[in-house]
């Protein structure tokens, strides 16, 4: 029979949680944690690349569109759980080729590649 005992970190963590619960701060911390999602939006030479965590989501759980030079991405699962992502982003992406945009969902990471319009790409000028 295996007996698990809490280590000192677990004891410290639990005591901090109880202290936060007693001060009434827990609900605001929980709310900001649940609504905070990280993403990356990088402009490369010929494309704008968007990435975000989409753990526990399927393609049918994610909606994506480009309108008025803004990328709108939202994701929410019908399932509930601690490790299931939920997000809603509206981000300026500039002049991109919406028709050539591609998306990939792989290993819990959503990647959207938006090619920059030809006439909007930076051109090096030489003598």
Brief overview:
With 127 residues, the chain is of the alpha+beta class. It has two domains: 8-37; 38-119, Immunoglobulin-like (Sandwich).
Walk me through the topology.
Elements: H1 8-23, H2 26-35, E1 39-43, E2 47-53, E3 62-67, E4 70-75, E5 87-92, E6 102-106, E7 109-115
Specify the CATH architecture of the largest domain. Sandwich
The fraction of residues in strands falls at 25-35%
Instruction: Enter the CATH topology name of the largest domain.
Output: Immunoglobulin-like
In CATH, what is the class of the largest domain? Mainly Beta
DSSP, total strands:
7
Helix content: 10-25%
Description:
This protein is α+β, with helices and mostly antiparallel strands. It folds into 2 domains: 30 residues; 82 residues, Immunoglobulin-like, CATH 2.60.40. Helices cover 20% and strands 33% of the residues. The chain contains 2 helices and 7 strands, in the order ααβββββββ. A 4-stranded antiparallel sheet has the order 1-2-7-6, with no helix packed on it. A 3-stranded antiparallel sheet has the order 3-4-5, with no helix packed on it. The termini are far apart. About 9% of the residues have low confidence.
Provide the descriptors you would attach to this structure in a database record.
127 residues, alpha+beta, Immunoglobulin-like, four-stranded antiparallel sheet, 33% strand, elongated
